[in-house]
Amino acid sequence: MKLYEIAHSRAGDKGNISTLSLIPFDESDYPRLCDFVTSERVKLHLKEIVSGEIERFCLPNISSLLFVCQNALLSGVTTSLAIDTHGKALSYALLEMEI
Amino acid sequence: MKNKIRIGCGAGFSGDRLEPAEILTDKGNLDYLVLECLAERTIALAQKRKQLNPELGYDTFLERRMRKLLPTLSKNKICLITNMGAANPLAAAQKVKDISLELGLDIKVGAVFGDDVLSMLDFEALAMETNLPVKQSGEIISANAYLGVDGILKALENGSQIIITGRVADPSLFLAPMIHEFGWKLDDYDILGQGTVIGHLLECAGQITGGYFADKDKKSVPGLDILGHPIAEISNDGSAIISKVEGTGGLINLATVKEQLLYEVINPNHYITPDVEANFTTVKLEDLGQNQVLVKGGTGKSKPVNLKVSVGFKAFYLGEGEISYAGFGAEDRARLGGEIIEKRLSSSFKEIRIDYIGISAVHRTSFGHNNSPYEIRLRVAAKADTVEEAAIIGEEVEALYTNGPAGGGGVRKIQTEVIGVVSVLMERNKIKDQIAYF
């Protein structure tokens, strides 16, 4: 199963950092996401995209996770040669992850 | 003092649609309308326009938006707060005053500035992104500090109906009227944290009402063609109900609010603005149904001693060229084109990128998906020191017409001067909000 079957995501950017939220459609899936979608697994999944560290934040009040990915935008929004300089489409890269 | 106020956000970026703000102004029963139009790099580009003409450097949509909105804002006694002043809030405020007089309206306009700190910039200061002295980034063309609520508060106290700012932290545009109306103390950090949460939720306008959210099945959003922008009805205890004007398109539920709450947040425990270090992890949401979500529980502690300053610099010239291939062997032919370009150009450009649009251009990988698409677009991009050098990229891609693989079509070539932005910190006591009235 892929993450997109049980969760949704929005990508944001700050400099060369990409922020990826991970929000289960059903809040009862939150503990499952916490157990499985660790920062290590996300780092492995995004190895061709994110070259820096990935920090995970847990927000139990809203049953959501946030991944903050360093060195993710080929030098950053304003100076990247990538076609999607903001990495706006990277939310769906996270959702491609097998769980 | 009021117990409740209603703030609408009618634009989430400079080029946002015009009519949601008109609908909010007309039917939103608003006390305040905010238009957030200033992205990280927008102000550096505006500084360049101001250098060419000192009367310009404000948002290029200002006049269009104001002509549409001023009569209704005035009729419904709604106060407008916007960062459309960009690099030139004074000229913007004068422009708005001129338009209001032309429309026969008597409106007090306040300009909030003081964010331009280029003359005070320490060129040896370390850029937060690179950890290198900021002067090493390139020729510096602008430095704008993120101001907080102070200047806007003074302009509100002085009875301004339209407040035009330069660089102000986005949530502060919303927090200032809450502080002004409810008499919140500037060191009551919990309530400033909650107010900052509300500002953060509203600042991207349509992104909380179902825009940038839609997908089939589980994320269907009705009426995206008539997407409404958000309203927060805020109580003096800081709790707020997010809604939109009835009859507009879109969707507000826990999912849309959660996506926006976490958008562009690099640490939800410490969301730093000039006014407060807010904590988003304490926020609680409740779906009230009918496109209404209750937001409460945001907290905060202290405010930073340094303010963030965005520094714009001349980075490089971007050269781009694209060509499409379709039908049998499209991928092979596109890759052959890419190889030809790489052989010809890689030694003469310091950074060159070859993308195959349709396969792996957007995510820079395809996670093992290996279905070759029917058609594919080759894109070449490179950094150059001059515009002439940048043009070579498009010229070389265009030359694939008669010198490259079979069946290439639809060449586009573009050269762009790229302004980069890095951030430095500056002691806040060096930076003074200034206000002028028109």
Question: How would you characterize this protein structure?
Answer:
The complex is a heterodimer of chains A (99) and B (438). Chain A is α+β, with helices and mostly antiparallel strands and 99 residues long. Chain A has one domain: Alpha-Beta Plaits. Helices cover 18% and strands 26% of the residues of chain A. Chain A is built from three helices and five strands, in the order E-E-E-H-H-E-E-H. Chain A has helices at residues 30-36, 39-45, 91-94; strands spanning 7-8, 11-14, 17-24, 54-59, 64-69. In chain A, strands 1, 2, 3, 4 and 5 form a five-stranded antiparallel sheet that branches. In chain A, strand 4 (54-59) and strand 5 (64-69) form a beta hairpin. Chain A starts with 6 loop residues before the first strand and ends in a 5-residue tail after the last helix. The mean pLDDT of chain A is 97. Chain B is α+β, with helices and mostly antiparallel strands and 438 residues long. Chain B folds into two domains: 4-310 and 424-437, no CATH class; 311-422, Alpha-Beta Plaits (2-Layer Sandwich). Chain B has helices at 19-27, 42-52, 62-75, 89-102, 150-157, 170-182, 189-202, 254-261, 330-345, 387-398, 400-403; strands spanning 4-11, 32-35, 79-82, 109-113, 139-145, 162-165, 230-235, 240-244, 271-272, 277-279, 284-287, 293-296, 299-301, 306-326, 351-357, 375-384, 409-427, 434-437. Chain B has a ten-stranded mixed sheet, with helices on both faces. In chain B, strands 5, 14, 15, 16 and 17 form a five-stranded antiparallel sheet that branches. Chain B has a three-stranded antiparallel sheet with strand order 9-10-13. In chain B, helix 1 packs parallel to helix 3, helix 5 (150-157) packs across helix 6 and helix 6 crosses helix 7. The model of chain B has no long low-confidence stretch (mean pLDDT 97). The A-B interface holds A 8-10, 12-17, 19, 21, 23, 25, 48-49, 57, 59, 61-62, 64, 66, 68, 74, 76-79, 81-84, 89-90, 92-93, 96 and B 40-41, 128-129, 212-213, 215, 218-219, 254-255, 258-269, 280-285, 297, 315-316, 318, 351-353, 355, 357, 361-365, 367, 379, 381-383, 418-423.
